[in-house]
Amino acid sequence: MVLPPLVSRSALGLLIAVVLFCPMSWGEVPPPPPRELTARWQTQVSAQITGLDLSRDGQTVALTVAPSDSNADSQLRLYALDGREKWTASRRTKLLGVSLAEGGEYVSVGTVDFTVVFFSKHGKRLWERPSVGLPVMTPGTSRVVTFNGGAAGVSQPLLEVFLPGGEKSWSLRRRGRVWRSVVSDQGDLLLGLWNGEALLVDRQYHLAWQQMLPKEIMALAISPEDAGYFAIGAGVLDQELYLFERTGKPVWRRKLPLGLTELSLARHGASLLTYGNTVRGQHLALYDRNGDVQWTYHIEEPASESSKAVIAPTVPLIVAGIERQRQYFLQGFTMSGELLWVAPVSAPIFDFRVSRDGRYIAAVTDDTLFFFDTHPVYGPKAELQPWPAPASSEHP
Q1: DSSP 3-state assignment of 220?
Q2: Residue 241 phi, psi (nearest 5)
Q3: Quick one: DSSP state of residue 227?
Q4: Which of 133, 266, 315, 357 could make an S-S bridge to 384, C-beta 3.0–4.6 Å?
């Protein structure tokens, strides 16, 4: 039967529309829409949040809060998994950062007058010491490492290490100031100095590698657990990305036309994630160990508050802070770039932390803490499985 001309043209137009706008219908199943996560709990403070940390199991959140009134006290607050406030500690001197021990058994905070204060998990102040910067707890050994960011005197060391009992166990006296730093799961210290020099101090506190880079160091990362690879992003305008083996042997080097401000590595250097918030917009890119781009995610509008993106250490999950049209989200991606979930928050994301299994996320704006559980309530089938164990490791 011959159709009237009008019907034929309509049918043809519908067919073209399907081809142009619904390509997934041709032999492919469209991905399910991402889930929207709501905060398991949240709390607002009447001051500015200056520091955040989350224990590795996600059971404890630590927060430092500094009021704008110089006559009011700063606070250290600890919260349980259910949002219950465990304890608080107050101090007249402004608190600027906080770090939790691996299992949450200790808490260290740094003050504006270069003092480290060390607490037990029950809130008892164990000791305090003058130091050169803000504290970072090392996994396993619960040592406190402080890095000299430039505000201390020129005679001060580059970094200091304190034992859980408060004794200073080691310091590195070297000319320079620390611009970026990261501590590996094995206790290695990767530093980027203001002059463009990169240093790797191993877990025995030996200077294992050093190199002058031709551009400013913007971001650092070490692969979790094995600490077998490390990455460096350098440059402000014409940026470059470097991947090294633990020995310092270069693996590859790439140009970054859209820029970066944060880096994250998967175990054994299998994947390298870049996050950038620049005048060119917000940009994510995932590279494999050979330096090939696996996928990218780009928003042309820059975010008002630079966030970050991380690969969860023990599951194949990526979490990123995103801003779109004055709306603010955490977004969860698979390692293939599929959007899993979106978690809206009320204001620009100042910082966030992800538990090692990717289940729990603590995120903060200037004055509000949000706590998310990424596992769906309808059962364990949608839960991510852990990274498969490698057959062998080149870097024990």
Answers
A1: strand
A2: -125, 130
A3: -
A4: 315
